[in-house]
Amino acid sequence: SETNPLKRAAQKVTESVQGDSDGPAEGIPGKPGPESSPVAEPTAAREPLPPKPDQSGPDTLSPTGQLTGADQAQMAQAGALLTDAQGTRRYDTDHSLKAGPRGPVLLQDHHLREKVMHFDHERIPERVVHARGAAAHGVFMSYGTASTVTRAAFLAKDVETPVFVRFSTVLGSRGSSDTVRDTRGFATKFYTREGVFDLVGNNMPVFFIQDAIKFPDVIHAGKPHPDREIPQAQSAHDTFWDFVTLHTEATHHTLWNMSDRGIPRSYRTMEGFGVHTFRLVDAEGGSTLVKFHWKPKLGVHSLVWEEAQIINGVDPDFHRRDLADAIEAGAHPQWEFGIQTFPDTPDQTFEGIDLLDPTNIVPEELAPVQPIGLLTLDRNPSNYFAETEQVAFHVGHLVPGIDITDDPLLAGRLFSYLDTQITRLGGPNFPQLPINRPHAPVNDMLRDGMHQTAVHRGVAPYRPNSLDGGCPITAGADTAAYIETPVRVPEATRVREAPESFADHFSQPRRFWLSMSPVEREHIIGAYTFELGKCYEQAVKERALRVLANIDPVLCAQVAEGLGLPAPEPTVPLAEVEASPALSQVGQTWPTDGRIIGIVTGPDGDLDGVRAVREAVLRADMVPLVVASRGGTLNGSDGALTVQRTFATARSVEFDAVLLAGTPGLDGDANAARDAKAALVGVRRPEHDPRVGLLLTEAFRHGKAIGAWKGAEAVLEAAGVPVDAPGVIIGDSPTATLEQLTGLMGTHRVWERFTTTT
Ligand code: HDE
């Protein structure tokens, strides 16, 4: 046959496509790779598998109302044969065109040029804030309970609406760690039949500033220092603390960041908030002011700071992985959507709280959160870039029945979100990207522009017109038009000023502090002490203490003690406020679905017991991870057990609880013989391995439930974990131990283990 490699490769293509003129070839089974390749092709070319259910693209309509399923298929690897961007088949994409094998690369290599050109432009600018995120598809099922206050069709009874939710950190770059201390974004795109509604919220109900004009400033202060570009994804540095102590309206949000809310255990265990007060409008035009809430079914749960720091190194993708794994495993995260409602009075206050001030909450005890629907995330994105990166949220994406208020922070956002997409997504046609396409038919008169992908018909994109049949015509209230609520605007003189009611910066933070349990207060004190301890500027630390003195003298004194500075006196009288118990994360019991239990066993552990607890953990919708001295399988009497983590790869931070497998009782000689045998193959028993000791002391320190069944006490003793401490269980049988352990996990942590001083 042909000896010239190029000709032979060309011949290979010709043979494989014979009889297949209008579709991809069946495959090239058994064909050797190109001559220059040292090994044969690893696999024979074949048709790609059809996408798994969770890999199919969003079920969207194009701007012209056509289903885009066909486009989606074309975007994947749609056939066996490689083509270039123009659809021309290529026989080699691993070698540049050269003048001889050792000669110069030729400028005429247009395949090289196209391939590298595309690669050069693969990145787009990351989001200026919220750059690091993870997302999922899901569905929102409305209870209909909001129908009395809003005409929004997707909030009517039993309406199902597809959604896409993106969670994020705020300060870090795209490649930064997940478990940094920061606010988290919680942005939801509802693809409703009346258009897209975006609720672009956070996991904290308040914001640092009251006026959008300060947003560039607070972000400049929070981002890394401009000279060295450090620190990454942190607020523990001088400029952040400089800003938040000079602009004391930031006090409340800063306190939330320093609380356990700043280090969530998982995206699945975060609350979400719309932050601003919105206005709902019913079918008769009646309006109600509301605050939006997302309540996680698994309860609010956080990491402890040391865990968060360890995870930054051990698994920087912790939250991203957790979300994707849970969805893939069928543990679909759920949140109840709720509203607090307030009468739409001209002063827009409730119980003396200014509803236009985004540094305020309204305690749930004063205005209960009323459930209006259920969000379930059930499908992972199939392509991070196309979906999670290119999704474009905007607070101005509203549907009939949902309107805005005059919160000055919201006003600035209404401008900013559209503006940013032009830089980020390269022009005004980002709504045409598959993830952003509305599911309602689009019939706009927007035309042309960068990256226009629609082929608009007609000649008269203006109205009224007499050339395109007079269409489109405008909708009215009876045909679901978006109609702005006719709110009275007060007669006023234009000023650059904040209202007097925005001036109280300390009573709401004091309420938050008073609502915390002793252990949560301890964590807050630790967080301030850590962050301010990382600052270099003495004046910044001192100013921060003056702010803390106005929240609470104990908080101030303890942080001052940690910094080695005197505690100042308050400069304003301490606010007389009641605690809001709903703000605390401690004291309730939650489902344990999706929680991870590490089951540690030695080379001669009770493997039948391990198998029994593994199965019981799975039945309880939790995740068992078997941890042993080495990888592979363990052979019990009932067949092999797969090892998921070894003493080298396991770290306590991955587990919500630890179970130690018992070892069947052996006498002293047998013990020695067993150890000798284990040492020969380089395998240590758990009680002899310092990594197991570390795992247990960390789990103990982090307030995690620890269980051991008969024969494993030695492992606890070797680690120095007291067997009679709270949350440490020595059970009679494997499953009885698991049962007790699960009971403890419902409260999230063994809170009694944390020392408190307040
Ligand atoms: Fe944002 N914010 N923001 N923000 N924000 C952005 O939009 C902005 C604010 C929030 O997953 C940007 O598409 C201004 C409050 C989330 O894609 C940008 C102000 C809240 C996300 C922007 C605020 C948020 C963003 C960056 C002060 C909670 C991520 C990229 C007026 C209620 C959305 C982008 C996603 C993203 C501007 C304040 C939440 C630049 C000017 C308050 C969850 O447009």
UniProtKB/TrEMBL annotation:
Cofactor(s) listed: heme
Function per UniProt: Decomposes hydrogen peroxide into water and oxygen; serves to protect cells from the toxic effects of hydrogen peroxide.
Enzyme class, spelled out: oxidoreductase
Record EC number: 1.11.1.6
Protein name in UniProt: Catalase
Transmembrane regions: none
Disordered: region residues: 1-75
Pfam families: Catalase (PF00199), Catalase-rel (PF06628), Catalase_C (PF18011)
Molecular function (Gene Ontology), one example: catalase activity
Catalytic activity field: 2 H2O2 = O2 + 2 H2O
Family classification: Belongs to the catalase family. HPII subfamily.
Bias type Polar residues, positions: 57-67
Limits of the Catalase core domain: 83-471
Keywords: Heme, Hydrogen peroxide, Iron, Metal-binding, Oxidoreductase, Peroxidase
SUPFAM superfamilies documented for this protein: Class I glutamine amidotransferase-like, Heme-dependent catalase-like
Source taxonomy: Bacteria, Bacillati, Actinomycetota, Actinomycetes, Kitasatosporales
InterPro entries reported for this sequence: Catalase (IPR018028), Catalase_AS (IPR024708), Catalase_clade2 (IPR024712), Catalase_clade2_helical (IPR043156), Catalase_core (IPR011614), Catalase_haem_BS (IPR002226), Catalase_immune_responsive (IPR010582), Catalase_large_C (IPR041399)
